[in-house]
Amino acid sequence: MWSSAIEVHPWVGKNYQHPENLLHKTLVLGESNFTESGKFKSDLVINCVLNDMSIDPTEERDTTGFCRFSTKIRRIVFGRDEAIGPNSFWQDVAFYNFVQSLVGDKARIRPTQEMWEGSVPAFIEVVLSLQPSRIFVLGKANWRNLLAHIEHEIVDPFTVRLKVGSEFVAAGYINHPSSSLSYNKWQPIAQKLLLS
After folding, report:
1. Which of 1, 97, 179, 181 is the most buried (most CB within 10 A)?
2. Bigger pLDDT: 59 or 40?
3. Which CATH number is associated with domain 11-195?
4. What angle do helix axes 65-78 and 44-54 make, rounded to 10 degrees?
């Protein structure tokens, strides 16, 4: 289904076309991939999501890594209501990291400009294929680089209409969930994009 430009395939939830908890077909856009080089495979993101969804709900949630990242995304969108757990959330969305190269084996390593630029064709392919009506961008650096490479119309300081092919799609951003995240500031922005 995907061309060789897409090194790490997106996760696409079973309810993506008709989400149960969101009002729009949503692509969650992460920034980049971090793992040991031997684990950098096309199913990296898919396996992260499946792992997050497989945690027994009667057990205490993992507070590190991808599970923590997932919890913060859900709380920004839905508040602290954990009724929307990993299964419900991930089945409603597609998830994809913009930078397709392996950035490093641990977080906090920054993608190079060449990595950003080289990932534009893959992003366009994913958006044209999945046809989201909303793109929820995680992180200011991700947002700045996306806008530097994709034609857009500014709606407000946190929202644009991206032109991908001949279509426009609403996109907005929040601070990256791995950073300090003010729920009071970012929740209204996320909810306006995804729940209204």
Report:
1. 97
2. 40
3. 3.40.470.10
4. 70
